[in-house]
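Protein Record: Sequence and Backbone Structure Tokens
======================================================

Structure line: whole-number tokens from a learned vocabulary of local backbone shapes, matched to residues.

Purpose: to set a sequence beside its fold so the mapping can be learned.

___
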Amino acid sequence: MKLKPYIFIIFLLALTACATMPPLQEMSNARQTISAAKDLSQEAATSAKIIEAERLLARAQRRIEVNLYDSARQDALRAQKEAIEFIEQAIAENNK
């Protein structure tokens, strides 16, 4: 029965470690989505949505450098969302 406190402590440490991991996958997803947007349309480079996505991605990178992982994760997710919205708009305009 003396193992229960140790198991609980190990569980908390594992949970904390997961919560404080850099958002590498989110950053990669955002980069790939921005790249796909640029491959899809020449106008992407000057689009407000892609410019905002790149700004958010750069801010996420700066936040990772100072261990603000939760904020960085949110910025990376927002960057990907902006790029997805651009892609959806570009596809909709091409289908008109």
